[in-house]
Structures are given as C-alpha cells and as structure tokens.
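Annex B. Sample input.
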Amino acid sequence: MSESNEKPDKILSKIKSMLHKAIINRHHGFHTPVFSNIDRNNNVTSRIVVLRNFDSDREILNFHTDFRSKKILEIDNNPLTFFVFYDFNEKIQLRITSTSIINHENNITLDAWNKTKLSSRKCYLAKKAPGLVSNVPNDSIPLHLVGKNPQKEESEAGYRNFVVIENKIKNIEWLYLSSLGHRRLSIELNGKKIKYKWLIP
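Annex B, continued. Sample output.
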C-alpha cells in the first residue's frame, strides 16, 4: 500500500498504531527513538530512550529516566523537547516536538514502578548519578548485583531515583521515503483541532 495515497487523517491513525505497537514490541523501529532537549547553554543534547507508554487520547509519549540525570534540571528549565523515530521496514520517519513534564514520586511514577521488571529496576540502584566522572569503566551498580537482578524488596530503594517523563505532543512531521516520490506531512495537534500541511520533503 502506497503511503503517498493516504489521506492525512489515515496517516495520523497509522502513526498512532505504530507507536502503540512499539510499546509492546522491542524490535519495532519506533521502540527506541532519539530524544533531545536544550541544555543550560542552549545547546541541543540527544540520546536514545525506550518508549514506555503512548496515550493516544492525551497525545503523550512516556519514557523513564534517573532523577539524578542532568536532563532533569535541563527539562525543568526548558520543557521544549524533541523526538526522532525511524522505522526501516516502513520507511517512515517521525520528527516530534513536545512539551515535557517530570514525574517523581507521585501516582504516575508509582504505577509505572510497579510494572517495571527487576532487571530495569536494577539501573536505579546505581550508587552514583549518571554522567559523573569515574576513574575506571563502571556502572556504579552494587558489586553483589553484578550479573544478577536484585530481590524485589532490595529493588524498592531505586524508586527514589525513578522518573517518568511525560511528553505532550505538539507537532508531528511525518516523512515517507519512496522511490516513487517522498512525501512529508506536518500534523499540528491541539486537542481536537488538528491542522495538516503537506510539505516538500
């Protein structure tokens, strides 16, 4: 099926379907997007994140991070953020502009924490904050947990470092790559008021 023949509302529906699938399928092209924010020096800083949830009704993308990470202060200072997704099989790229909200030790984080596997909880038991300088290659995980997961009771100590970043989508730029001709669509989201604009790829 040619994406170029799709109507804008159907393109948006497919985008939402792909994002939902990416939550449960770690092999999906959209499962690990690039997330960018603006630091205190007005530079763009980027990293790969794991897409943990997509609320299509509220148009919110979620990922998890460590409360001690530098990006927490950066996002708090400037909540304008960006995602880039790419699915090789579908030849679809999404560039998403969003506004981010930091959730720490609230109902949102508690619900997400209760669904988090022990292997993922282990990351939040690191003794030192992400990004700190180390004299040797080191992940700062307690030595007794090397090669194994913590017990559930022990893992609870990591909750204080656990954050859910909610990212409210403001705009999606959809790009479809095809030998028959690329197509690019801007989708501005504002509740039920959706504005579509075709762009030159």
